[in-house]
Design a protein that fits this description.
about 220 residues; 12 strands; elongated; 5-stranded parallel beta sheet; 8 helices; about 20% strand; alpha/beta; 4-stranded antiparallel beta sheet
Length: about 220
């Protein structure tokens, strides 16, 4: 298998690389989340093994970015955290499996075999809610057949909401997914972008972008 390992701890990265190569796999190693995302986007891998706590971009954000860009390469997440909430957060970000450190290498190999058998999960070509359609491949948005021009940030915000259609997306998740590590961004910025998005998307009835007071936003047809 072609395996991407994203691990910032040099000793662990070297152990994983050596062990996987000895098992006959081809391995590429990245030392931080941003480098891992660039490699995962630029090349095709059978499986991605990544640490949850990474510099520059953490493993949760990396996995979400991959899924939001329709990259469905199986992801095995490694972490020293074993609380149920951490496991849930890892799986909800889009990871296929979750392995707590330390672990026997044989268990890692078995988990890799399991997630690789699942393969990439197909996704719909379009995201649609009522008469609103977003084409992730072409980066286009239409409402009732009419084209809507969005800025890159507005597009990412709408895509996030539409990928979670019918589910409330919290302001924290929006900040994390759309703005990442830009610490100068506040919830007021999120509200401002939602208002701008509404002007363009909800110019006609029915309104599709709804506020859930005290929580976040949801895209759905009432």
């Amino acid at each position: 298998m072609q395996i991407l390992v994203v691990e910032d701890e040099p000793r662990m990265a070297k152990l994983l690389e050596r062990g996987l190569v000895e098992e006959g796999h081809s391995v590429v190693v990245a030392g931080d989340g941003a480098a891992g995302l660039e490699l995962a986007t630029a090349s095709a891998f059978d499986v991605i093994v990544l640490d949850c706590m990474l510099p520059v971009m953490d493993g949760l954000t990396l996995t979400r970015r991959l899924r939001e860009s329709r990259n469905q390469t199986p992801v095995l997440m490694l972490t020293a955290r074993d609380a149920d909430s951490d496991v849930i957060q890892g799986l909800d970000s889009g990871a296929d499996d979750y392995l707590t450190k330390p672990f026997p290498f044989e268990v890692l190999l078995a988990r890799l075999r399991a997630v690789s058998r699942r393969g990439a999960i197909p996704r719909p070509v379009y995201l649609e809610v009522a008469d609103l359609r977003l084409d992730p491949a072409a980066h286009t948005v239409t409402r009732a057949g009419e084209s809507i021009n969005l800025t890159p940030r507005e597009y990412r915000l709408l895509e996030l909401l539409m990928r979670n259609a019918g589910r409330v997306v919290s302001r924290d998740k929006i900040l994390d997914s759309v703005w990442g590590f830009d610490t100068g961004v506040t919830e007021n910025t999120v509200e401002a972008f939602v208002r701008l998005l509404r002007i363009k998307v909800d110019a006609h009835e029915p309104r599709l972008i709804h506020t859930v007071r005290g929580t976040g936003y949801v895209v759905k047809a009432l």
